[in-house]
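Run log // design_07
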């Protein structure tokens, strides 16, 4: 068992702390060596309507939904091993919850309405309490009507610092946002419309970094920056091109990865995904490097310019180490792992892909894989009635609050999930409560076998992930294009 993490003990520690009430800021945790007491970090978040300024003055502010008055919400920054106690107050006119995306929390702290908790009603509060077991770049957002709540600005960064971080001159967080604004500059009210649901989601028309449409970002010549990128968008996929800044990826979805230069200098971030980059500013004083986002072909745009200003910090790229200390993740054993097939169907043009992919669709998937034209017709009917996306032939109905597990995985055992995307669209697939290794794509072993909590699956692609199911409970497994999720692309994975 890892030194830092045991879900059962974590839950017990939570009960202990709840009983201990207001005893104070220091809470000894039995799961750590007795000499180390975890610091409890008390945080308050209030979700409420507010104002956001996406563009500099004289542009006006717009109505948004905010945490503590800002969109995105405040950066929560703690140390690995700290315990977080976050009191969330709901100042919205509708229910909400907070999900700690990528953080391996106990099930009851996961923020999924009706599955892990009662939603937080208007004017109510809920206290989330969990340990920061993994260091890395994470984020938080509501899990209630996320397509609207996130789309209006409710999301924020959660940074868990390593005890011994890699050395850099500056540690910078960029929360990438994507807003759909009307001509008058207000947030467009067309949330959850059928077109977005059936196609690639609510892709907007105003990209922000930390809530502002960016222009320039000042750096010192010679400076080394750790840039933490978080995709907080409903649906937009980002692929910023950092060629010219010697980008090295050191972590993905918060988890360390063997430092490497990404293909073509570009990192691809589907919704909810994160990447930590090391960038060395090698330009001359006064020089600029433009960063283009190149994900959508023909729709490239300039995201931001790095501007080198001031006197150089150093002449040469430093040789400081880039490898982050590993997090306490259990290694899956592929020899003994169970195998589970998952097929994604649906969306516009999906039936064509489905027909062409033929075989793979029926490949031994448990529980209702689409095997014949009769269920295909059923899917088409379902699509016309509002559900659009299917996991093993089933579209989830979030509103019914009745989600039976699509899959039950044995606790503390290794499992492989093979996912086939039989649709014409990209899907960032997220599993709650765990990080998994991405072991292959289209049958080819994956070079870095990166740990992720959200993996972008391309049209017609087959991706295999592997992990140890060490966190018991019912966990969401869904597409993080929030309109796809709303259109049925989610399921429950039971670990018992
Ligand atoms: Cu980022 Cu199910 O969530
Ligand atoms: Cu999707």
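design_07 sequence
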């Amino acid at each position: 068992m890892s030194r830092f993490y045991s879900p059962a003990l974590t839950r017990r520690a939570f009960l202990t702390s709840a009983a201990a009430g207001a005893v104070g800021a220091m809470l000894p945790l039995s799961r750590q060596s007795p000499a180390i007491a975890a610091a409890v970090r008390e945080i308050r978040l209030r979700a409420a309507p507010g104002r956001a300024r996406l563009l500099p003055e004289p542009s006006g502010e717009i109505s948004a939904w905010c945490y503590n008055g800002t969109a995105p919400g405040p950066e929560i920054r703690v140390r690995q091993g700290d315990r977080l106690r976050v009191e969330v107050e709901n100042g919205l006119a509708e229910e909400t919850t907070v999900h700690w995306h990528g953080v391996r929390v106990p099930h009851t702290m996961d923020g999924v309405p009706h599955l892990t908790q009662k939603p937080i009603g208007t004017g109510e509060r809920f206290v989330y309490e969990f340990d920061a077991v993994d260091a890395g770049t994470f984020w938080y957002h509501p899990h209630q009507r996320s397509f609207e709540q996130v789309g209006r600005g409710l999301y924020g960064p959660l940074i868990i610092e390593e005890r011994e971080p890699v050395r850099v001159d500056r540690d910078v967080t960029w929360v990438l946002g994507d807003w759909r604004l009307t001509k008058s500059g207000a947030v467009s009210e067309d949330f959850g419309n059928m077109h977005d649901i059936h196609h690639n989601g609510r892709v907007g028309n105003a990209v922000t970094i930390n809530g502002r449409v960016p222009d320039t970002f000042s750096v010192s010549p010679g400076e080394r920056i750790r840039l933490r990128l978080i995709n907080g968008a409903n649906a937009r996929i980002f692929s910023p091109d950092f060629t010219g800044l010697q980008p090295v990826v050191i972590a993905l979805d918060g988890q360390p990865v063997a430092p490497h230069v990404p293909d073509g200098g570009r990192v691809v971030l589907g919704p909810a995904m994160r990447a930590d980059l090391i960038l060395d500013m090698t330009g001359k004083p006064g020089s600029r490097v433009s960063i283009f986002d190149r994900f959508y072909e023909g729709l490239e745009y300039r995201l931001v310019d790095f501007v080198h200003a001031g006197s150089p910090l150093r002449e040469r790229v430093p040789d400081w180490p880039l490898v982050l200390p590993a997090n306490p993740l259990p290694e899956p054993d592929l020899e003994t792992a169970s195998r589970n097939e998952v097929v994604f169907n649906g969306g516009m043009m999906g039936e064509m892909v489905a027909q062409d992919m033929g075989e793979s669709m029926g490949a031994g998937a448990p529980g209702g894989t689409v095997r014949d034209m009769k269920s295909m017709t059923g899917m088409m009917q379902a699509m016309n009635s509002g559900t659009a996306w299917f996991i093993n032939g089933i579209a989830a109905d979030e509103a019914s609050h009745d989600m039976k597990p699509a899959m039950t995985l044995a606790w503390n055992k290794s499992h492989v999930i093979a996912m086939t995307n039989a649709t014409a669209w990209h899907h960032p697939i997220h599993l709650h409560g765990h990080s998994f290794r991405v072991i292959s794509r289209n049958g080819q072993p994956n070079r870095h076998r990166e740990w992720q909590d959200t993996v972008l699956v391309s049209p017609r692609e087959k991706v295999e992930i592997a992990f140890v199911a060490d966190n018991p409970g019912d966990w969401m497994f869904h597409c993080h294009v929030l309109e796809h999720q709303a259109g049925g692309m989610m399921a429950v994975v039971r670990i018992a």
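Residues 282 and 343 are 46 Å apart (CA to CA).
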